[in-house]
C-alpha cells in the first residue's frame, strides 16, 4: 500500500520492448536505498516489482495489461517519473490509501498559474466519474491530491509549489497523459450498496 506522497522525481534510463511486455530501468537514489528483488515501488502511481537492483537504479517488468491501462507505455529513456516506496506499518498516512492499481488514464486539459499555486484541469473517463467528488481524494500519476471541482468528464486540482517542483505535474503540459486511481473506499461503498445486506451468503 502507498499513500500518494511522492518520495522523489526519478528518471527512466532504458526501456526494452519484449513484445507483450516491456522492461524498464529506472534511476532513483532514495527508493533504491535498501531495495531488493521482489520489493514494490510505485512508478507514476503504478505498483511495479523490483526485478534487479544495482547502485541507484532498478529494473521492473511491465506486462501488456499495465501498458494498456496506464500511461507507462508512453515512457522513453529520459522520461521523469514519480517514485514512492510502500508505506511502513505504523507510519503516518500523509496522503490517502493508494493501491498502485491504476483505474485508467486522463489527459492534462489546462493549467492556470497563480502567484503561489496552479490549478490543473484533467480529463476524466466516463466510467470513473462517479467515484470522483469535490474535496475527495484522487491519485494522479501517483500523487495524492484533493479534488477542487468535479465534473462529468473532468476535474481540477490545486498544486502547491512543492508538488510543482518535486513531481511530474510541474512539467506536464496540456495533451500529456496521466495515470488515475480513484479512492478505493468509494468502490467498496458502491459494491456494498449494489449487492445489499446478506448478498452472496
From TrEMBL:
InterPro entries: ATP_synth_asu-like_sf, Lumazine-bd, Lumazine-bd_dom, Riboflavin_synthase-like_b-brl
Broadest EC class assigned to this enzyme: transferase
Catalytic activity reported: 2 6,7-dimethyl-8-(1-D-ribityl)lumazine + H(+) = 5-amino-6-(D-ribitylamino)uracil + riboflavin
Entry's EC annotation: 2.5.1.9
Start and end residues of each Lumazine-binding domain: 1-96, 97-193
Coiled coil stretches, renumbered: none
Pathway named in the protein's UniProt entry: Cofactor biosynthesis; riboflavin biosynthesis; riboflavin from 2-hydroxy-3-oxobutyl phosphate and 5-amino-6-(D-ribitylamino)uracil: step 2/2
Entry keyword Lyase: no
Keywords from the named record: Repeat, Riboflavin biosynthesis, Transferase
GO molecular function, one term: riboflavin synthase activity
Gene3D superfamilies the record matches: 2.40.30.20
Keyword check for Repeat: yes
Transmembrane region(s): none
Lumazine-binding repeats, residue ranges: 1-96, 97-193
PROSITE patterns recorded: LUMAZINE_BIND
Function: Catalyzes the dismutation of two molecules of 6,7-dimethyl-8-ribityllumazine, resulting in the formation of riboflavin and 5-amino-6-(D-ribitylamino)uracil.
Protein's name according to its UniProt entry: Riboflavin synthase
Amino acid at each position: 500500500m502507498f499513500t500518494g506522497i511522492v518520495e522523489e522525481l526519478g528518471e527512466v534510463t532504458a526501456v526494452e520492448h519484449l513484445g507483450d511486455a516491456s522492461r524498464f530501468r529506472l534511476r532513483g537514489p532514495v527508493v533504491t536505498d535498501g531495495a531488493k528483488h521482489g520489493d514494490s515501488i510505485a512508478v507514476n502511481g503504478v505498483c511495479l516489482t523490483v526485478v534487479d537492483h544495482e547502485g541507484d537504479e532498478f529494473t521492473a517488468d511491465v506486462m501488456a495489461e499495465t501498458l494498456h491501462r496506464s500511461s507507462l507505455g508512453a515512457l522513453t529513456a529520459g522520461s521523469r517519473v514519480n517514485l514512492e516506496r510502500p508505506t511502513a506499518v505504523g507510519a503516518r498516512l500523509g496522503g490517502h490509501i493508494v493501491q498502485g492499481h491504476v483505474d485508467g488514464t486522463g489527459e492534462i486539459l489546462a493549467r492556470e498559474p497563480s502567484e503561489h499555486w496552479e490549478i490543473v484541469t484533467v480529463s476524466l473517463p466516463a466510467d470513473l466519474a462517479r467515484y470522483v467528488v469535490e474535496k475527495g481524494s484522487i491519485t494522479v500519476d501517483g500523487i495524492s491530491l484533493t479534488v477542487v471541482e468535479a465534473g462529468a468528464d473532468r476535474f481540477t486540482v490545486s498544486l502547491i509549489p512543492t508538488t510543482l517542483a518535486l513531481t511530474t505535474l510541474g512539467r506536464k503540459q496540456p495533451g500529456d497523459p496521466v495515470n488515475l486511481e480513484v479512492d478505493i473506499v468509494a468502490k467498496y461503498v458502491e459494491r456494498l450498496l449494489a449487492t445489499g445486506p446478506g448478498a452472496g451468503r
